[in-house]
Amino acid sequence: MRQQVVSQTGVGSSAVIPMNLDSTPFNVGFGVVISGDPTYTVQHTFDNPWTTTVPVWFDHPTVSGEVANADGNYAFPVAAIKVAVTAGTGTATLTVIQAGIT
């Protein structure tokens, strides 16, 4: 998968980055770079973001409530990933790379 990049400026959620669930192994790395002083959380869902009206989002176990640049990964399948700015001003930019896809 080519790098996928989404940003969120101010409180709210970014666009969703869908994952390829057929990729084996399912390995996803991500990083978040901030400008300003946002507080943000990386979130994932197991719901299909294209067919579920209101997906259920879960916070990443270690990249949650962050106030500085951070990175992490997903070693288990998730359907989609996004970044949510929960407080502050500025922008959180999420870059995602999934292994095994060209």
Between the first and last Cα atoms, what is the distance in angstroms?
5 Å
What is the CATH C level class, in words?
Mainly Beta
Q: Determine Rg (CA atoms, Å).
A: 13 Å
Judged by helices, strands and strand pairing, the structural class is mainly beta
Q: In words, what does this structure look like?
A:
This protein has 102 residues and is mainly beta. It has a single domain, classed as Jelly Rolls (Sandwich), CATH 2.60.120. Helices cover 0% and strands 50% of the residues. The protein has no helices and nine strands. Strands 2, 3, 5, 6 and 8 form a five-stranded antiparallel sheet that branches. A four-stranded antiparallel sheet has the order 1-9-4-7, with no helix packed on it. The N and C termini lie close together (5 Å). The model has no long low-confidence stretch (mean pLDDT 94).
